[in-house]
Amino acid sequence: MYRASDRVDNAAWIDRLDDARATLDLDEEALSTATDLFLSRAPDDDRGKRVAAAASLYAAALIRGQERSQSAVADAMDVSRLSVQKRWKPILEDAGFSPPTW
């Protein structure tokens, strides 16, 4: 859970999520889910926020059935694919979902 002030404090990161959402051709529900996931666990440092936002967007795309590759999400958020790969599963689990077992 997050506070309303977290949304204000992280407005720039939410805008980055929206830009990446558009690049990846995801819908508004995916953005809403990614925003909720990100704000629920946003770290304090900007470097960590970039990775948390990317992993949240990847997880949201999975949740909403709009899968995109880790590489595509990483490119859209300007992080490494490995960063997304390492962090998306804990985000899903914290939100109460079971990661796919592909």
TrEMBL record:
It comes from the Archaea. Residues 23-92 form the Transcription factor TFIIB cyclin-like domain. SUPFAM superfamilies: Cyclin-like (SSF47954). This is Transcription initiation factor IIB family protein. It comes from Halorubrum yunnanense.
